Amino acid sequence: MASEFSVLLRRLRHEAGMTQEALAERARVGVRTIRGLETGERADPRVTTVRLLADALGLVPEQREELLAAAVHRTAPGERPDGPGDLGNSADSGDSGDRPGPGPVATAHPPDSPDLPDSPDLPDSPLNEALARIAEQLAHSVATRWQREEEHRQIHDPYPLPVRWRPAPEELTDHWANIRRLPAGRTHGPLDLCGRLDDIVGVYRRIPSGRLVVLGRPGSGKTILTARFVLDHLKSRARAEAVPVIFSIGSWDPTALTFRDWLTDQLTRDHPGLAVPGAGGASLASALVETGRVLPVLDGFDEIARGLRRPALEALNATTLPLLLTSRPAEYAAAVAETDVLTSAAAVELTDLTLDDLADYLPRTTRKGHGGDPSGTCWDAVLAELAEQPRSRAGDSLAAVLTTPLMVTLARAVYSDSAGQDPSSLLDTRRFDGPEELEEHLLENFTTTVYRPRPDHLPGGGPRPGVDVDPERARYWLGYLADHLTRLDTPNLEWWRLGSGLRRPVRALVTALAVCLTMGVVDLAVGAFTDPLRYQLADGAAAGLFSGLVFGTAYWFVFAARDAAVPPAGVRVNLKVFGRAGRAGRSASPRLVIGLVCGLAYGFGYGFAHGMLNWGLWRTGFPYALERGLKDGVIFGVVFSLGTGPAFGLRALLETPLDIRSAVSPTGLLRTNRRTITAQFLLWAPVFGLLVGFGADLLMGPLSALLGPLAWTLTAAVKLGVTSGLGGVLGYGLALTAWGQWLVLARVWLPLTGRLPWHVVAFLEDAYRRGVLRQAGAVYQFRHARLQEHLARAYRASRPPR
After folding, report:
1. Which of 160, 478, 541, 640 is the Cys-Cys partner for 603 at CB 3.0 to 4.6 Å?
2. Burial class (CB in 10 A: 0-12, 13-18, 19+), 455
């Protein structure tokens, strides 16, 4: 049934002498959108769409007001408003600050894209349909991940702690005219944004700008709120709406990456399949960000390095993307004082838990029957003290501590979930002089409690390497990880950067040593069947030392000098050279050139050292040894160049991005990289060995004509091929891949020096299961920044456990 807006739009189009196609082209919206608006099938135009239509029709101010008013009046009570672009709260919703209408409910015709008030309806095209399908897959992946995370953190056991908020101080909020997207000259008033956890999506949809800042002191529930926002938003999300995705903004350096590029990188890291090139060569992750199909939920603005918060806020103000941002109040206020508030953003501040909240929650987290009373619990005495003597020294200190969900959950873990623990000890003023001591006590005892010995009769009980560890050792290793993150100034515990906390010269030397030993052993093992032991020992030492020098130098200049970590591969080996896998051929030519140059440099150096062995071992004259070294340098340089170049190019041809639906966990990404490196080794080692070995044999004839008679046999060719294939691939893998660096530094060097356990993966997975760590896509994070700070402080003040 045609509405007032439909009739009016059709009349104005006829008066302008336009067809539906002409209006769609001029307004840059889809023809289907125009047709749906005029027939009434699409009864939910956004403010932005209506304004684009008004501009395209060339309406005078009176006609523009009439069209906008018709769009507003079509929203009857109970219908779903347009979210952040809600006409009822927009520039045309009236001239006062009346409270907005009811929260969103489902309608037969969902809004085009309620989370993108600044993005017009995109023209219908196969590309848009493909991006919509990919966004659906992303939405499913995000929902699955955060649903599991909520369950793992026992958010609903027995029920979510109440998280409430009130409007933040006006000086931290932009002008309400900007938040409401009002035109010049319109009167306005503040929106009513008070609410609680299950209202967060409805509150967000009342904000026409789609920008909200959530402020809260440490442990006040900001992370719980972001997870609930994402899950509730996805439940009510229309197909064309943006997908809310949580990003830990603390890792962003706005001076190095633009905001959109950083979002793209984070999406690709957590969803490697989105690295697939789309139309125009850009990745699917970039296309989703650029078309506004991702709603950034930015958690932890306060975790950005102190000197980067101002440029970060300025960079956010340079974009018009809708977003939700969380921060501690002091850090956000300091950034605002240096520059400005977040443009067009409303702000709310989380409030403290009340005594009634504690009285409802804590007794339900533990067993009944305490002290002979069937309905009593261990918390009764504590809650009675807080209720009856709130002004006492003990009651006042404990009440101040138990006002945040973080401290309540820690108290629950230490006392409710542990047999034999009496929370009445928290009221002992001789042990705890004030709130600070109580908080430190809960933080310290949390790790002790979660690492208590596991009963053998429980599932997974019994000794397990890297899992059943002494609490003191566990605290020390966790402290090293916390201190590692503090030094890197990031909340993200990335397995491929575990070695980055070491000094750069140490990393380069350890890498060179690992390659040296590996190459020396391979050369010695292969040559032991063909050459005298005396010669082979010297040749193995020379090959190892030179390989270590070359790969160590390469690692230094490519990564260590820039203090960068080797990124994990977002590809896998695909034996289909043609078809989809063949797209990687675009990167084959540059890798071919790189392989030729690197092979020439390595081959000449190794060949020269190989030739000079005649002088060192057999005491031939130096001029002869020098001549032999130069000849061998040329021979090996050409051979390795012609072997390495094609091998590098073939590797590029056989790489294909991971599946679009692949959303990774930290250990999943590690396993994927291990499989990728193993597949590359099994493929590349034989190819490289054959190219080098048989290439050397074939080139001896032409090179003999140029350089004179050369001593060469088929046995020497086979030895060179096998040694190069095995040693070269292993050296490359150890020095220049993320999995190799993980193996050298995190699996060998750090455990060898006592800073991490030998079973690092098992330890990290177990810490996640125990609730010390949490997963954020492809990385781990500590359960809370306060816990990380506490463990890092304790580590710096401690000695390694025996």
Report:
1. 640
2. exposed
| CA–CA gap between residue 160 and residue 797 (Å, rounded) | 36
Residues 631 and 770 in one domain: no
Confirm if 229 and 197 have CB atoms less than 8 A apart: no
Alpha helices in 451-503 (DSSP H): 471-488
Q: Do both 261 and 395 map to the same domain?
A: no
Count of domains forming the chain = 5
pTM for this one? 0.74
Q: Identify whether 281 is part of a domain.
A: yes
CATH number at residue 46: 1.10.260.40
Are 134 and 172 members of one domain? yes
Q: Which of 218, 214, 157, 206 is nearest to 179 (CA)?
A: 206
Judgement on whether residues 411 and 445 belong to the same structural domain of the protein: yes
Say which CATH number the domain at 148 has: 3.40.50
The answer to whether residues 399 and 296 belong to one domain is no
pLDDT at 385 over 70: yes
Residue, of 135 and 67, whose pLDDT is higher: 135
- Is there a contact between 782 and 491 (Cβ–Cβ < 8 Å)? yes
Least confident of 81-85, 256-260, 485-489, 522-526: 81-85
| Longest distance between any two alpha carbons in the chain, whole Å | 102
Contacts of 89 (CB under 8 A, 6+ apart): 81, 100, 180, 191, 206, 207, 208
Residue 768's domain is classified under what CATH number? 1.10.10.10
Kindly state whether residues 234 and 337 are assigned to the same domain.
yes
What does the pLDDT read at residue 632? 74
- Per the model's pLDDT, the better-predicted residue between 254 and 596 turns out to be 254
Contact indicator for 730, 533 with CB cutoff of 8 Å: no
Would residue 177 count as lying in a domain? yes
In a domain, 95, yes or no: no
Query: Tens of pLDDT along 75-110?
Result: 333 333 343 333 333 333 333 333 333 333 333 333
In the structure encoding, which two tokens stand for residue 728, read together? 């070269």
| Owner of token pair 């340098």 | 633
Q: Is 675 helix (H, G, I), strand (E, B) or coil?
A: helix
Residue 305 region by backbone torsions, left for phi larger than 0, else alpha for psi between -120 and 50, else beta: beta
Residue 88, CA atoms < 13 Å, CB-side half-sphere: 22
Q: Cβ-count burial of 752 within 10 angstroms (0-12 exposed, 13-18 middle, 19+ buried)?
A: exposed
Judged on CB neighbours under 10 Å (0-12, 13-18, 19+), 216 is buried
Could you give the percent of the chain with pLDDT greater than 70? 78
Instruction: Identify the CA nearest to 246 among candidates 303, 321, 297.
Output: 297
From the CB of residue 583, how many other CB atoms can be counted at a distance below 10 Å?
14
pLDDT tens digits, one per residue of 714-764: 777 787 778 878 888 888 889 888 889 999 999 999 999 999 999 999 999
- Indicate whether 719 belongs to any domain: yes
| Confidence band for 590, pLDDT divided at 50, 70 and 90 | low
Q: Which two tokens stand for residue 670?
A: 């590690």
Quick one: pLDDT band at residue 360, thresholds 50, 70, 90?
very high
Same domain, 396 and 412: yes
What mean pLDDT comes out for the span 248-272? 91
Helix (H) or strand (E) holding 244: strand 243-248
Q: What is the pLDDT of residue 589?
A: 67
Same domain, 568 and 435: no
CB 137 within 8 A of CB 71: no
Q: Quote the domain boundaries for residue 397.
A: 355-450
Between 565 and 78, residue with greater pLDDT: 565
Q: What is the mean pLDDT of residues 464-474?
A: 74
Confidence of residue 571 (pLDDT cuts 50, 70, 90): low
Give the list of residues 6+ apart from residue 5 with CB closer than 8 angstroms, or none: 37, 43, 45, 67, 70, 71, 73, 74
Could you tell me which of 319, 345, 82, 294 has the C-alpha nearest to residue 206? 82
